[in-house]
From TrEMBL:
InterPro entries listed in its UniProt record: Fido, Fido-like_dom_sf, Fido_containing, TPR-like_helical_dom_sf, TPR_rpt
Positions bearing carbohydrate: 218
Record lineage: Eukaryota, Metazoa, Chordata, Tunicata, Appendicularia
Catalytic reactions on record: L-tyrosyl-[protein] + ATP = O-(5'-adenylyl)-L-tyrosyl-[protein] + diphosphate; L-threonyl-[protein] + ATP = 3-O-(5'-adenylyl)-L-threonyl-[protein] + diphosphate
Binding-site positions, ATP: 306-313, 338-339
Superkingdom, natural source: Eukaryota
Single GO MF annotation: ATP binding
Keywords: ATP-binding, Membrane, Nucleotide-binding, Nucleotidyltransferase, Repeat, TPR repeat, Transferase, Transmembrane, Transmembrane helix
Domain Fido, residue spans: 225-341
Its EC number(s): 2.7.7.108
Name of this chain's protein: Protein adenylyltransferase FICD
A cellular component term, taken from the record's GO annotations: membrane
Group of enzyme by EC: transferase
Membership in a protein family: Belongs to the fic family.
């Protein structure tokens, strides 16, 4: 994930060219202890890998043991036993954040897993401390950048770099979703407004829609964020599809192996989500936590037929920009890592 240095001025801009009920409580509180679901038995290959991994771990050969555990995970990526074992090794390697991630994923598959619940109580506090230290470092770096680039509008070379970063942002945020236009083609469309010969109309509309949404974000900077604001962002992102732009989905959708909440739950969940964004509890969070939580929640609800990821990334960056942080450009080469968590 690459953080691009945006122009720091009185108002930061992205564009330098001109099914969980009672959310959010359930997503924030500790997992509820419920009966464990019946899980499929491991294959002989996985069982053998786990046995070998255990032997290496007992010999304190953690790296080798972890390699075998990851091999087992590639076969059964959602097996809570494998996830817990990886999390335990990460604790031994003094990597509490990584351990917490694996334990959290294990609890998503088996909320009643005893060892995962015990281990996560240990890793959660450690991970929060590490996280807090990183946030302090980021805050200090932000202040340095703020001072260094406060007069960036007067610096031609820096302004040119920021323009190129803007084109990169538009390119990567649509490429992550499968748009096949090259960076140069996206740049040409944004500069000249002319489409390259043979350009797919749908892909061209995604470029134009993203630019329209960015301009809207820059123009409004609406806080606290409302449900109408998110709908208006999505309407612009999907300007090439007016039937679905700014409209909640009315049927079930699937994202790989993930099944978002049913369509009838979406309006209520979005209302609760935006109320949470306006709450004192949310406002007290660090802006980076705010942006991550907003992005995660919107993609979890998956309220639209299409354009959920693009809208979530815009929402994430609007929160960061409001707090005078640089915007985040998630590159297409990082797509698998981005989707992983």
């Amino acid at each position: 994930m690459t953080i691009i240095v945006a122009c720091v001025s009185a108002r930061l801009e992205i564009c330098p060219r001109d099914v969980r009920t009672n959310y959010p409580q359930k997503i924030i509180t500790n997992p509820t202890r419920i009966p464990s679901p019946k899980l499929p038995e491991s294959s002989p290959e996985v069982t053998a890998l786990l046995s070998k991994a255990d032997k290496f771990i007992k010999q304190n050969k953690l790296k080798k043991g972890l390699e075998l555990l990851h091999q087992a995970q590639r076969i059964n990526p959602k097996d809570p036993e494998i996830l817990v074992r990886i999390g335990t090794v990460k604790v031994d390697q003094n990597e509490p954040e990584e351990a917490d991630r694996y334990l959290s994923k294990a609890l998503q598959q088996d909320p009643g897993h005893d060892l995962a619940l015990i281990m996560r109580e240990k890793t959660k506090e450690l991970a929060l401390r590490v996280d807090q230290a990183k946030l302090k470092t980021i805050d200090s770096s932000k202040e340095v950048l703020f001072e260094k680039f406060s007069s960036c509008h007067e610096n031609y070379d820096l302004t040119k770099t920021l323009n190129d970063d803007y084109y990169q942002f538009v390119y990567h945020t649509i490429a992550i979703e499968g748009n096949t236009l090259t960076f140069q083609q996206v740049r040409d469309v944004l500069i000249s407004g002319k489409a390259p010969l043979g350009t797919d109309v749908t892909e061209l509309a995604e470029v134009i829609g993203m630019e329209a949404a960015i301009r809207y974000v820059n123009r409004t900077v609406e806080f606290p964020i409302t449900e109408d604001h998110i709908l208006n962002m999505h309407r612009r992102v999907m300007s090439g599809d007016p039937d679905n732009g700014g409209e909640y989905r009315n049927h079930q959708v699937y994202v790989g192996s993930f099944s978002p909440p049913p369509p009838e739950a979406v309006p209520r969940m979005m209302e609760e989500f935006t109320k949470f964004l306006q709450s004192d509890r949310f406002q007290k969070l660090h802006p980076i936590r705010q942006s991550a939580l907003a992005h995660h929640t919107l993609t979890f609800i998956h309220p639209f037929v299409d354009g959920n990821g693009r809208t979530a990334r815009l929402l994430m960056n609007q929160i960061l920009l409001k707090a005078e942080f640089p915007y985040i450009n998630i590159k297409v080469n990082d797509r698998l890592e981005y989707y992983r968590w």
